[in-house]
């Protein structure tokens, strides 16, 4: 059986294992960090370091995950 392939190309960041909900959380966290930056510079450093490490972790999880090619079988 062939899987249905949509003709629309999805942006690369949507292929992270945690999905679009995580992306929305990350973006909202960055926005909150930007708002806090005007009040406290140390909080902004903490928020940016945290969001950067989360992004790095998801990128590593994405690239280290086994790839599902057209020949692989899902149970």
Sheet-strand content, in percent, reads: under 5%
The overall strand count is 0
Mean pLDDT equals 67
Largest sheet report = none
Round the Cα radius of gyration to an integer and report it. 17 Å
The H-and-E topology, N to C, reads as: HH
Count of separate DSSP helical elements: 2
Morphology call: elongated
Short description:
With 75 residues, the protein is an all-alpha fold. It is built from two helices and no strands. The protein has a domain at 15-64.
Describe this structure in words.
With 75 residues, the chain is mainly α. The chain has a domain of 50 residues. Helices cover 57% and strands 0% of the residues. The chain has two helices and no strands. Helix 1 runs antiparallel to helix 2. The longest helix is centred in the last third of the chain and has 24 residues. It is elongated, with a radius of gyration of 17 Å. The mean pLDDT is 67. Keywords: Membrane, Transmembrane, Transmembrane helix.
């Amino acid at each position: 059986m062939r899987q249905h392939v949509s003709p629309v190309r999805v942006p690369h960041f949507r292929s992270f294992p945690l999905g679009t909900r995580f992306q929305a959380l990350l973006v909202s966290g960055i926005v909150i960090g930007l708002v806090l930056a005007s009040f406290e510079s140390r909080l902004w450093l903490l928020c940016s370091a945290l969001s950067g490490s989360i992004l790095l972790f998801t990128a590593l999880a994405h690239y280290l995950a086994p790839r599902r090619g057209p020949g692989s079988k899902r149970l």
